[in-house]
Amino acid sequence: MVKELREAQSMLFEKASTYTKLIFGLAYGGFFAFWSGTRQYLAPRQIIWSALLVTISLILFVLFEVFNAAVLSHVAVKFARATTVPVVDLPASLQQFQSSNARIVKSLGIAWYPTFCLSLISGLVGVAIVLRGWVHWLYTTKP
Fold first, then answer.
1. What distance lies between CA 136 and its chain's CA centroid?
2. Rg (CA), the chain
3. Into how many domains does the chain fold?
4. Rounded CA gap, 60 and 37, in Å?
């Protein structure tokens, strides 16, 4: 039962992670496409602040993903080493692997929330600046 729960949790985490990466990737690409098309209608401060905030968001997201990939690769190598022991030693080796890596995996989960929130907030504020500037230009420009 516990094994099935862990497999379900792992599957849900993997799907959520893939979905988040896809949405963030599309959002960053869409923002910079929209930003470059509307830049001429924005005030210089709006251009700078929006680009800065979304770039900060992008950097946070990419740095976390690189860190995450490095840590998970390290854990995968340790798992491979833990499973290359004689069969009689395998349960003890897996138990030792699990206990030594539980803290690492938990730390990734803890680091994800503030990184995600900071990345999301800075990105949304950058988008809001561009949208506000563009909508302002639309309403103040004479046809």
1. 32
2. 22
3. 1
4. 25
